């Protein structure tokens, strides 16, 4: 059994320019749990209040597969472990497992930590021995292990033995600087596995473009834990990319790890992380990139479909991706049918409705729409095209005004909105005046517009009050077009019972926000009616 | 000696969305020649007129290191080779070397080519025998070799023998579908090298995230030619990335190939290709990404500089890249002093100026400012705090109005801007009227504001006309605050001579854009004055 240990939220989060909100972290945690990842390293509780908040709120999630892991340094020298505030924070989290990192390279011990080699071993030993009293599983991350082993193999192994003797459940060899080549990994794992008895793991970095193969080599050499991140997120050249590792490990190498049927969620977890980071999803990612199975024109569609093996190294559907063929729309229709089925709607792949929906989606995608993270917008599109949802209101106009009167004064905004509800609905509700024209203010134009829109709708649909926006993201597509580029707005809303994501695209950022806001409120009204 | 064979212009160019103009191809050819690449595969002359044009014009370049290679399929069946138009085009190029590809997988021969296995061997033999009369070097690309070998090893080897007997100078084993794992590459190269005498090469694809290691393994097993592309450009998950292969091969594994002193050009060749493709240069590329040697905050700047080996797997300058240390909330005075030094300003770490600058930065960062990608804003902040820059203009107010009149009509925007220039500047320029109030329209509010601001400033500073916005990004900070969250706008501008990034943060997205736009234009004016 090979355990997948995800550190997207901790090591991945150390990437330049990356910042996950608490909401983001919880959404990713849920998605990783659905995928079936074994461990999720959520952060370093003793390092900052945001990480601490994660450990408190994550308990509220109903996780089925993943164990939450807290990360930490060893205890500080010179104080008793019971008095170490960082370690105390760790203990307070009461998670199922913790990972403690320690230096395995003598140079780092003397130059960076500035302690003796012996003291370092004691810190490792004492920390792990202590934590074993509070946690089922305690893992040891041997930092800079490979470089340390190359320079002073005896000392590097001593750090592992200190952890092992203290009761560590797994010793993870870390290629912290990412400089280790594949044959060095083979040699070092061979040597080390003869010297320690505890199970081994690997934590590779991609500075030499070797992280994936180093991770798989470790497993071939008997390692039982692979640490990595989604999309290889991480500082410098990134951490080991779990989206490459998992399909290779499970589908190609046949190891027992995440169940093979769960792998179809890989693509959506991968996309979710890109969405939450507000970054383009790299098209050339192996397995999970949108180009990964995009066949160039000239390849006969029928050849690929009759015998996909001739051109594809694995079936893309195994990991939730899909074949993209510029000539044919056949792959598109299967996707629509599958997604509709997930929503409880059975459609015929060859029906005109599916064709219509596919055309709409292609049109929108050409403008920059993506439905990952905005499934509610997709559901609305589907149901509206199928005539399964009603028109709740019509926009009769909005105006948004922003002013900044001088360099010293803050800008402010005012919005007016005109909406009208259909006659049938007005009759049902016994409302005479179908029309509302109202105004609101805000610090910014989108805030003002959002307030004005809700105000207008609450008059007819009081349940709108329950809706709260929990996430608002803007991405600029085709950024090279400068201020003429198209903003894509992604919104997450909640009414306390459920959460849903909607999207809007327009060269006008206010209009893009409007589209996403309107979808968010329409979705609420539609779900209320569905009961 | 390991020969580097670049196919950026041929296989790389097959990537979805990639198109190189003839100019681009010649610039890349020159850059690759400067780097010292041994072979440059420029295209398939028989396939289209653009490729043909390349081979005619490339003769005009004065190349010192690289041999130009033309690519082609084998001759057509059923006609004499002398009458094959495609082969004739190949011969006309009169380049030093050609590469011919043929099928090595029996499945492809029968299903895709629809000829007999025997016929296929003849096509290979006849084509190469014929071309050896015209070209010094003829290479054979054995397509789908690894999959072919796994299914019918005897036949796969027969295709190699056919090429060898015809006089091929190198037999390149191609992992066309990219599905081969590293240990399979080892086994297959071991087996094949016993069965043929001609030198071997490798052409790997990255579908399993294995292309780099597969290429290096081939060399360890005796291959003398590696085919790949700059930045791993190529269809699906890309070709083997030469920017990872070359440093590993030459610096780490010590093979004789491109001279080590040439490697410092690697970073700029890599950047050039991204520039010509008009794509962001991926920051996390190993070796050549801007993050490849970017150290996170918390790592003592002094530790890295005293002993780079502790944190860096190679010296970035060997490949033309540089260490980047972020100005971030955890960094301190050392960082400020270093960044100021990069700008040519010497500061005393313990001076009150540095303290003041640090406080400003911390204050801004707490609001969400990041200076990565916005070094111009940082430079402005530094110089303004040190009293080293002047006030070019003052905002007297802006107003931005967005309207959408119905669901069917598109939104549009109008902005008005009032600016005033200081008396001294007006006197210098001989301008009487210091004040300008003007308006502009746009599809969106930021576009309208940008236009109005430039219009107003161009009246006083004509050089503003040279400034173009090349990138506009918005990120919402603390997204969980919904529409009350703070947008951070990142802008990249250029005036044809230099490029610079600026940033603005505000709960009002228009104001945030304003701040970034103003910094972008102030920076231009400041640099113009600095000369």
Description:
- Chains A, B: Belongs to the alpha-IPM synthase/homocitrate synthase family.
- Chains A, B: It comes from Desulfurobacterium thermolithotrophum (strain DSM 11699 / BSA).
- Chains A, B: Its EC number is 2.3.3.21.
- Chains A, B: It catalyses: pyruvate + acetyl-CoA + H2O = (3R)-citramalate + CoA + H(+).
- The structure is a homodimer of 531-residue chains.
- By secondary structure, chain A is of the alpha/beta class.
- Chain A folds into four domains: 274 residues, TIM Barrel (Alpha-Beta Barrel), CATH 3.20.20; 39 residues, H-NS DNA Binding Protein, CATH 4.10.430; 99 residues, 2-Layer Sandwich (Double Stranded RNA Binding Domain); 68 residues, Double Stranded RNA Binding Domain, CATH 3.30.160.
- The first copy, chain A, is built from 18 helices and 16 strands.
- In chain A, helix 1 packs antiparallel against helix 11.
- About 1% of the residues of chain A have low confidence.
Task: Provide a brief overview of the structure.
With 531 residues, chain A is α/β, with parallel strands linked by helices. Chain A is built from 18 helices and 16 strands. In chain A, the strands form four sheets. An eight-stranded parallel barrel of chain A has the order 1-2-3-4-5-6-7-8, surrounded by seven helices. A three-stranded antiparallel beta sheet of chain A has the order 11-12-13, with helices on one face. Chain A has a three-stranded antiparallel beta sheet with strand order 14-15-16.
């Amino acid at each position: 059994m090979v355990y997948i240990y995800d550190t997207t939220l901790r090591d991945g989060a150390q990437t330049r320019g990356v910042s996950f909100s608490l909401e983001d972290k919880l959404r990713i945690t849920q998605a990783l749990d659905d995928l079936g990842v074994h461990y999720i390293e959520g952060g370093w509780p003793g390092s900052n209040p945001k990480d601490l908040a994660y450990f408190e709120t994550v308990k509220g999630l109903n996780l089925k597969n993943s164990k939450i892991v807290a990360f930490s340094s060893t205890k500080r020298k010179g104080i008793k472990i019971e008095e170490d505030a960082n370690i105390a924070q760790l203990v307070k989290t009461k998670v199922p497992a913790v990972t403690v990192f320690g230096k395995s390279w003598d140079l780092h011990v003397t130059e960076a930590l500035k302690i003796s080699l012996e003291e370092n071993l004691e810190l490792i030993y004492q920390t792990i021995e202590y934590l074993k009293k509070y946690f089922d599983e305690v893992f040891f991350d041997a930092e800079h292990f490979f470089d340390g082993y190359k320079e002073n193999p005896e000392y590097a192994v001593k750090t592992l033995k200190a952890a092992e003797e203290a009761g560590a459940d797994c010793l993870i060899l870390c290629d912290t600087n990412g400089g280790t080549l594949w044959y060095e990994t083979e040699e070092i794992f061979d040597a080390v596995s003869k010297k320690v008895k505890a199970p081994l793991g690997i934590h590779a970095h991609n500075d030499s473009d070797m992280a994936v193969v180093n991770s798989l080599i470790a497993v071939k050499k008997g390692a039982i834990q692979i640490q990595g991140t989604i999309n290889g997120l991480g500082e410098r050249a990134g951490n080991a990319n779990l989206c490459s590792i998992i399909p290779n490990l499970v589908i190609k190498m046949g190891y027992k790890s995440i169940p093979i049927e769960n792998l179809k969620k890989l693509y959506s977890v991968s996309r979710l992380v890109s969405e939450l980071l507000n970054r383009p999803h790299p098209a050339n990612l192996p397995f999970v990139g949108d180009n990964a199975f995009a066949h160039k024109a000239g390849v006969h569609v029928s050849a690929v479909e009759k015998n996909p093996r001739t051109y594809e190294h694995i079936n893309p559907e195994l990991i939730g991706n899909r074949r993209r063929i510029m000539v044919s729309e056949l792959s598109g229709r299967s996707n629509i049918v599958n997604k509709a089925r997930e929503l409880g709607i059975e459609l015929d792949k060859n029906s005109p409705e599916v064709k219509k929906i596919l055309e709409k989606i292609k049109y929108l995608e050409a403008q920059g729409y993506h439905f990952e993270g905005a499934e509610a917008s997709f559901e609305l599109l589907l149901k509206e095209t199928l005539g399964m949802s009603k028109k709740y209101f019509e926009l009769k106009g909005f105006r948004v005004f922003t002013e900044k009167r001088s360099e010293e004064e803050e800008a402010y905004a005012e919005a007016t909105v005109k909406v009208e509800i259909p006659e049938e609905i007005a009759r049902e509700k016994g409302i005479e005046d179908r029309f509302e024209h109202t105004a609101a203010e805000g610090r910014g134009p989108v805030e003002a517009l959002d307030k004005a829109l809700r105000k207008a709708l609450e008059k007819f649909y009081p349940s709108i009050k329950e809706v709260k926006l929990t996430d608002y993201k803007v991405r600029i597509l085709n950024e090279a077009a400068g201020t003429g580029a198209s903003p894509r707005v992604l919104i997450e809303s909640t009414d306390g019972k459920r959460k849903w994501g909607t999207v809007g695209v327009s060269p006008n950022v206010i209009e893009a926000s409007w589209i996403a806001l309107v979808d968010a409120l329409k979705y609420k009204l539609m779900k209320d009616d569905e009961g």
